Amino acid sequence: MANIRIRNTNKRLTKEQAVTSFLDKHGVLYEHWDMDKLSNKLRNQFLLSNEDKEEILSTYDDEIRSLANRRGYAEWDVVALSDATPNLDELLKKFENVHVHTEDEVRAITAGNGIFTIKGEEGYFDVELSPGDVISVPVNTPHFFTLMENRQVVAVRLFIDSSGWVAHPYEDPEFKQ
Ligand SMILES: [Fe+2]
Fold it and tell me: What are the boundaries of the signal sequence (predicted)?
């Protein structure tokens, strides 16, 4: 279940109805996948073989194809980040720059946690994600992604066209880390 923190006011939204309507108002897709479908070993594993990634994709094949049919995604893969990832700190530094994409950025969290910080009408807000959360940052919306204290995540990514997923830096004097 995602939680929201509105950065300007430090207000937190934790109730499902409040989170859902806040994200809906900002055009952010928010859905859930059933984590009981995933094998136990993959719920807490952050170094993944190609076979592990294939298992995640086949476990959620129906959910992936449903999203793809509704929203036009043509490609998908699995990404894993943890302290076992070479240069994790450098990668996170790169991720933490506000940017936009020419297609929406959809992620389904299958293990660990992550935060999307997104620019809304009233400034930036953090969406803290847990396993089962599926989110999509709308096209051309300033945002960035980072990890939470546990510094580990596994996520399915879906793309309309993987070349659309280039990060275009967005200079924003309003933004404070
Ligand atoms: Fe992005």
Answer: none
Which residues fall inside 5 Å of ion ligand 1, going by CB? Answer: 105
pLDDT tens-digit series, residues 82-107: 999 999 999 999 999 999 999 999 99
CATH class for domain 3-169?
mainly beta
Question: What is the distance in A from the centroid of ligand 1 to the CA of 84?
Answer: 22
Q: What is the pTM of this model?
A: 0.95
How many angstroms separate the alpha carbon of residue 175 from the centre of ligand 1? 16
Beta bridge partners of 114: 129
